[in-house]
């Protein structure tokens, strides 16, 4: 089973945004040393506690501080941008870091309605046009625009020897079908929604259309996971993320991920306790053996080719240790 890392570049309650971004680079370095397949960083806009609105900037920084691990966006939010500009940017990254760049694309706004309006005058129309934008992006990436296309004379320079690998990210049948119709690899975000996930992935595989002879359907399942030496320690570490999720729902999470002590002392009413229970049910939390069992169960259930984990902790040391224990248990 391939294992990878998804990073939202979260800011902890005792950190600056710069420290959070530096920690993202250190996480990618750790992932490379531990044998993880890829490291992706997400795009968010004006969301409290998240430091990265521009994955393409961070990937230049991270690529310069790593050597072999695949790096990419998870995801670049395509409705905000022209496909040509996205192709130029990721072709440039693929030129700088050969055979290492993934271009994950999504259709979500990535922030509040106000932030979306500041970025985009016509977001909903761009979402509606997403199938056309994906096709145009593919043509720019592979430099094979039809001769009758309005931009046929335009090249998304520089053209790398190996183009970025495109992935479509989503949680719906619509996204799965769009990926399949274009012969793209697909990432299902289980950590955001597990509704109909098994059916959605099956539909992707059943509908997959080859773009090239050597292609085949490829599925990443993204989950939230926390691992420590003991189950009790893992539960403790995960408390920060659980309470932070609740705080964000209540518009209270502006200080970032709370420390374990802060999270433990946060007063919860019965409704909030039930909410945290629901959030926790979608996570994998435990000692190495338990996490391994959980990941293997998900891989088999969803027929995923790769598991990508997101681990939002207060301390970088706890996050890296979690990935380290999992890597050792699954013998990466």
Automatic annotation (TrEMBL):
InterPro entries: Bact_Lucif_Oxidored, CmoO-like, Luciferase-like_dom, Luciferase-like_sf. One of its GO terms (molecular function) is oxidoreductase activity, acting on paired donors, with incorporation or reduction of molecular oxygen. CDD domains: Flavin_utilizing_monoxygenases. Residues 1-301 form the Luciferase-like domain. GO terms for cellular component: cytosol. Signal peptide: none annotated. To bacterial alkanal monooxygenase alpha and beta chains. This is LLM class flavin-dependent oxidoreductase. It comes from Bacillus mesophilus.
């Amino acid at each position: 089973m391939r294992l990878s890392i998804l990073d939202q570049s979260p800011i902890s309650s005792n950190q600056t945004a710069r420290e959070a971004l530096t920690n993202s680079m250190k996480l990618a370095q750790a992932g490379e040393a531990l044998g993880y397949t890829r490291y992706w960083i997400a795009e968010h806009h004006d969301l409290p506690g998240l430091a990265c609105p521009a994955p393409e900037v961070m990937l230049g920084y991270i690529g310069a501080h790593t050597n072999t691990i695949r790096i990419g966006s998870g995801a670049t939010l395509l409705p905000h941008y022209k496909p040509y500009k996205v192709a130029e940017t990721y072709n440039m990254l693929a030129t700088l870091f050969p055979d290492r760049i993934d271009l994950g694309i999504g259709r979500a706004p990535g922030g509040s309605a106000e932030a979306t309006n500041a970025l985009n005058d016509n977001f909903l129309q761009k979402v509606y046009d997403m199938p056309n934008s994906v096709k145009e992006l593919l043509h720019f990436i592979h430099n094979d625009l039809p001769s009758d296309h309005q931009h046929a004379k335009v090249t998304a320079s520089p053209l790398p020897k190996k183009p970025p690998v495109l992935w479509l990210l989503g949680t719906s049948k619509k996204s799965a079908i769009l990926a399949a119709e274009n012969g793209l690899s697909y990432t299902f975000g289980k950590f955001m929604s597990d509704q109909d996930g098994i059916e959605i992935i099956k539909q992707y595989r059943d509908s997959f259309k080859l773009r090239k002879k050597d292609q085949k359907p490829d599925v990443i399942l993204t989950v939230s996971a926390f691992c420590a030496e003991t189950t009790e320690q893992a539960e403790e570490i995960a408390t920060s993320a659980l309470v932070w999720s609740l705080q964000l729902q209540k518009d209270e999470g502006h200080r970032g991920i709370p420390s374990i002590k802060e999270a433990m002392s946060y007063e919860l009413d019965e409704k909030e306790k039930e909410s945290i229970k629901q959030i926790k049910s979608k996570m994998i939390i435990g000692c190495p053996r338990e996490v391994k069992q959980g990941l293997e169960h998900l891989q088999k259930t969803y027929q995923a080719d790769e598991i990508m984990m997101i681990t939002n902790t207060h301390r970088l040391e706890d996050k890296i240790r979690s990935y380290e224990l999992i890597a050792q248990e699954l013998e990466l």
